[in-house]
Structure formats: structure tokens, C-alpha cells
């Protein structure tokens, strides 16, 4: 049976909700005021997606009022997509090719903005002075390379491109579709072939076509290296060293071929074979005695080493071979014990980074004479209590930074480290997700803007704590903080509006959008 609150009970709830709504709207108004008064436009831009009606117009006047502000905002990497889309419209309207160039270069510029720029500057053949045409051509190249450019736009650019630079940019775009790459390969343009061979989306048929159409060793090497390389190309050993190296890197190469490549005269080819997980164990035995130290180092970091190979590498004269082995899961306990007492500090440090390093060795290495080794112990996620207590007494900055990030460090110790003279130690306290709120509060006044942003985003802080940081003096830090505050306020206003909406109101996306818009309009 549904129970309805009596009027005497409902009135205090309604009053509390009204007071909370008034507080939220008051905070929103203050954010808008501070943003409009700021010396930069970035803060206004971070409020822009959450504003509506009168507030949005006021923010637009601040953001887009001068060309210098437009140019600054177009290059801002954290600018909201809605602000960048509006800038693209202004660039098209004013034929501002400099603004268009900055927008096309910004990785955050959304797809619709790129389409606006392409329609205004690229699809229409540029007329005018040589410098202007060159700049428009640059816009085309940047759009062609942009990771957010939609496939249809890239296809249009490919069809209308009149310069090799634009086609090259298309081949470098990570979002280009397989069919478009096949079309570009069909044109037979030599400067594009290597880029097409490198691209991960190029299919096996296109790679086979590239192989047949070129004798360029660099192109063929990229074809052989790719995961989509046709299998028939992996069954013979080519003549050129770059091609053999790529063949040795391909995990689909047969064990027989890899064994032959492990004996190659070129050490770069042998190094490639040493890194390939498909290389047979018999070839690894040969490679662990290779005269080239880089080959032996490549073998030492493999996690599939036979025990006998570990025995040989553990006595290698090269410090980086032993160091790589000391971090390797394939290194057994018996050799970890020996390497933990190695004469080289870098090897002992690597033992501390071994995933299964036993507790007795951590106790030993926590007392190492070299601070860099002790710091390696401090960086481990799991530490025996006695080891952590020993490291807390250390005075080295690297060691204390590791202690400050450890989840088992007492809060009293974190509070002391939060006052350390080294910014590295203080930053480590902030990065510790287990640091309590009372330890973090004094760090809101840190001298480094990055530290203040990290404190602001720490999960231990409350919304009230973050609100008190609204007077942040650094431009970029303030923008990021205001973006978070504005999003939180908009979400709170939306929730309150939904809570106070009539019970029979449909909770549809359109309804929620209208409620949020109305709430933000009231906040203005």
C-alpha cells in the first residue's frame, strides 16, 4: 500500500529542496560571473556546454568577441566540442583561414566542425594570393589527417585532392577505412606506397598488390612486417636486410624461417628474431650466446625462456642482460637470490621490480646502500609491514615518493610527507588514492598548478572542498576545475528538477533535456 507524506512532513522536505535549488543557482551565477571576469576565454568555454539562453549569449560574447580570443580558444586542447563547432561556423562565415587552420590542427575539433571547415575552404577551389591558397591547402592536409574526420569526408577529400601532401595525410590518418586505402593504392602513386604498407587497416589483398607493384625494399619490408601480410610472402627469405628484419618480426613467420634468420649475418635481423614470440626454443639457445649484446638483451626479457637459457644469461657479462633477466617472470627464485646480490645496482633494482620477488629479498634490498634500489622496493604495491616501516624512516626523495604513493602508508606519515620540501614527494601524496581528505586539504594551496588540479580531482575531496578552489589563479587549471564544477552543478540541477517534476511526467530524453535547459536558464 502506497503511503503519502502528511502535509506537515512534506513541507520541510519541500523547503529543503527549495533552499538547495537556490544554492545551486547561486553557485552557477557565481561561476558565470567569475568566468566573464577572467582574463582568458578558456574558463567561459568550459561553462559553455552547460549554459542556456541568456547565459550562453553572455559567454559567447566573451569567447568570440575578439579575433585573438577566437584564435586562442581554437588551439585550446581541452576546449569543449560545442565551442569548437561554433568557432568553425564563425571561421566559415568570416572566411578566416587562420582560425580554420588552428581548428583543423586541434585534435578535439569534432567531426561536424571539420565538415564545416572542409565545405567552406577545401571543397571550394581557393582563389586569391599564393599565400592564401597555400594556407587553404594546409587546412585540407590537417583535415585529411584528423582522427575525428568522418569516413565520408575523407573519401570526398581523396576524390578531390590535387596535391600529394593531402593524399599523404590521408594515408597517415588512423581512421581511414580499408576500402579508401585500397582506392589510394590503386592509383599507383609511389610516394604513398610505404605509408599504405604501414597502415594497420590496409588489407591483405591491397598488400599483395603493393608487393607486386614495387621493388622498393622499404615498401616490401613494411608489407612483410604487417599482421595482414599474405602468408605466401612469409615462406621465403628475401635478399635485403630490411625485408629479412621485418620477416623476423612477424609472429606468423614459420619456426623454420625464424631459425634460419636467427643465424643471419645482420645483427638487426637476429635481434628481431630474438624478440619474436614464435621463435623456437632451439634458436633462443643459439641467440643467448650471440656476440651482439643487443641480441642477448632481447633474449633476456622474453617470458618463455627455458631454464637452461636463464642459467646462461644470469652469468652474462653485460649488466643490461642481467638486469632484463632480473625483471623477467621466467627468472626462478634461485637466480633472483643471486641477482639480488649482484655487484651492479641496476641489476639489484630490477630484482625489486620482479613481479614475484619474495619477501626475504625485499627485506634485503630495502636496506641496500644505493637509494635507487631502495626506491624500487618502495614502488611495489604489496610490501611486508616491516619493510614499509623501514622505508618510512628513509631520507632519500625517490624512496619517500614511493612510500607516499603506497596504499599501506599511515595517514600520519602522509601528513608529514605532504609538507616535504620536494614537490615530487608532495605529488606522490596527492596521487595516492588512499590519502584522506584532512591530509589533502592543505595541499589545495600548492604552488604547482598541476598539483592543485590533482588535489581537486582526488576522490577523497567533497564537492564543498572543490567549490572553495574556484578562485584558482592558473589559466588552464582554472578551466579544468570550472568544467568539472559546471558539469556537477548542471547534473545536480537536472536531478532536482526531475525529483520535483509531476509524477505523471514522462521521463524521456527530451523531457530531461528540457528540464536541464530550464534549470540552467533559471540559474542565469
Automatic annotation (TrEMBL):
Protein name: Leucine rich repeat variant
Cross-referenced InterPro entries: ARM-like, ARM-type_fold, LRR_variant
Species of the source: Paraburkholderia terrae
Positions of the UniProt region annotated as Disordered: 493-524
Chain intervals with Polar residues compositional bias: 514-524
Amino acid at each position: 500500500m502506497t503511503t503519502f507524506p502528511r502535509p506537515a512532513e512534506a513541507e520541510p522536505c519541500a523547503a529543503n529542496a527549495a533552499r538547495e535549488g537556490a544554492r545551486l543557482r547561486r553557485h552557477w551565477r557565481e561561476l558565470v560571473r567569475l568566468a566573464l571576469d577572467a582574463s582568458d576565454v578558456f574558463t567561459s568555454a568550459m561553462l559553455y556546454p552547460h549554459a542556456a539562453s541568456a547565459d550562453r549569449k553572455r559567454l559567447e560574447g566573451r569567447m568570440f568577441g575578439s579575433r585573438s580570443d577566437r584564435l586562442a580558444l581554437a588551439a585550446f586542447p581541452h576546449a569543449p566540442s560545442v565551442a569548437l563547432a561554433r568557432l568553425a561556423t564563425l571561421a566559415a562565415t568570416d572566411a578566416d583561414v587562420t582560425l580554420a587552420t588552428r581548428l583543423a590542427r586541434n585534435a578535439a575539433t569534432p567531426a561536424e566542425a571539420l565538415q564545416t571547415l572542409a565545405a567552406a575552404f577545401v571543397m571550394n577551389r581557393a582563389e586569391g594570393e599564393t599565400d592564401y591558397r597555400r594556407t587553404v591547402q594546409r587546412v585540407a592536409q590537417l583535415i585529411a589527417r584528423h582522427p575525428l574526420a568522418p569516413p565520408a569526408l575523407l573519401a570526398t577529400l581523396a576524390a578531390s585532392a590535387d596535391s600529394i601532401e593531402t593524399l599523404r595525410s590521408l594515408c597517415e590518418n588512423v581512421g581511414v577505412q580499408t576500402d579508401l586505402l585500397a582506392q589510394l593504392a590503386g592509383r599507383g602513386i609511389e610516394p604513398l606506397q610505404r605509408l599504405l604498407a604501414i597502415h594497420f587497416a590496409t588489407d591483405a589483398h591491397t598488400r599483395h598488390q603493393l608487393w607486386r607493384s614495387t621493388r622498393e625494399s622499404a615498401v616490401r619490408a613494411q608489407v612483410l612486417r604487417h599482421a595482414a601480410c599474405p602468408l605466401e610472402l612469409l615462406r621465403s627469405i628475401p635478399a635485403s636486410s630490411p625485408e629479412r628484419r621485418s620477416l623476423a618480426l612477424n609472429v606468423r613467420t614459420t619456426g623454420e624461417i625464424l631459425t634460419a634468420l636467427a643465424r643471419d649475418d645482420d645483427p638487426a635481423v637476429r635481434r628481431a628474431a630474438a624478440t619474436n614470440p614464435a621463435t623456437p626454443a632451439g634458436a633462443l639457445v643459439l641467440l643467448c650466446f650471440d656476440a651482439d649484446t643487443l641480441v642477448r638483451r632481447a633474449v633476456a626479457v622474453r617470458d618463455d625462456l627455458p631454464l637452461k637459457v636463464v642459467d646462461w644469461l644470469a652469468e652474462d657479462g653485460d649488466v643490461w642482460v642481467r638486469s632484463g633477466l632480473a625483471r623477467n617472470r621466467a627468472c626462478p627464485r634461485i637466480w633472483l637470490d643471486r641477482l639480488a646480490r649482484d655487484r651492479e645496482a641496476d641489476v639489484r633494482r630490477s630484482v625489486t621490480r620482479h613481479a614475484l620477488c619474495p619477501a626475504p629479498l625485499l627485506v634485503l634490498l630495502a636496506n641496500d646502500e644505493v637509494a635507487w634500489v631502495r626506491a624500487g622496493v618502495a614502488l611495489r604495491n604489496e610490501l611486508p609491514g616491516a619493510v614499509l616501516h623501514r622505508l618510512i624512516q628513509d631520507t632519500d626523495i625517490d624512496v619517500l615518493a614511493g612510500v607516499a604513493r603506497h596504499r599501506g602508508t599511515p595517514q600520519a606519515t602522509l601528513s608529514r610527507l605532504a609538507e616535504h620540501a620536494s614537490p615530487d614527494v608532495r605529488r606522490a601524496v596527492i596521487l595516492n588514492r588512499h590519502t584522506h581528505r584532512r591530509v589533502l586539504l592543505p595541499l589545495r594551496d600548492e604552488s604547482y598548478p598541476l598539483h592543485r588540479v590533482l588535489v581537486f580531482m582526488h576522490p577523497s575531496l567533497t564537492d564543498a572542498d572543490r567549490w572553495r578552489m574556484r578562485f584558482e589563479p592558473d589559466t588552464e587549471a582554472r578551466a579544468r576545475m570550472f568544467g568539472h564544477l559546471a558539469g556537477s552543478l548542471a547534473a545536480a540541477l537536472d536531478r532536482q528538477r526531475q525529483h520535483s517534476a509531476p509524477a505523471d511526467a514522462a521521463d524521456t530524453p527530451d523531457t530531461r533535456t528540457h528540464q536541464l535547459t530550464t534549470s540552467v536558464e533559471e540559474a542565469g
